[in-house]
Amino acid sequence: IQLENAPNDKYKTNANRVLHRLELVEKIEERMKSRTKSEWEDSLKALGLPCGQIQTIGEALTQDEQIQARNMVIEYDDFKRKNKTGEILESQKFIGSPMKMSGNPIEYKTPPPRLSQHTDE
Question: Fewer beta carbons under 10 A from the terminal one: N or C of the chain?
Fold first, then answer.
C-alpha cells in the first residue's frame, strides 16, 4: 500500500513504524477505504500475495463456498416462522456438525431442544 505524502524514512524501519504507529494506522485505514474488499483481494493476488477477505459471520455462513459445500448450515422445518397464511417469514438456521466421514453421512433427525424444553425432565 503506497501512502501518499509519507516521507520514506518515517516508516522505513519497524522501530520508526512503531514510533509513528497511530499515524500510520490512520493512513492505512484511510487508504483501505478507497477500494472494496474484492478489489483489494484481486490487486494483492495479482502481486502474488496470499490473501483472502475477512468475512462477517453472516457472510461466512451464507456466502462461503466451503461452508456450503460441507453442509455446515442446516435448517429444521420445526423452526420455521410462518405468517397466518402459512408463508415462511424466516427460518432458524443451525451450525452443522464439522465431523464429516465418507460412507457414513451425518443425519439430522431431530432439531435441538427449544429453550427450557427439557427443564422438568
Answer: C
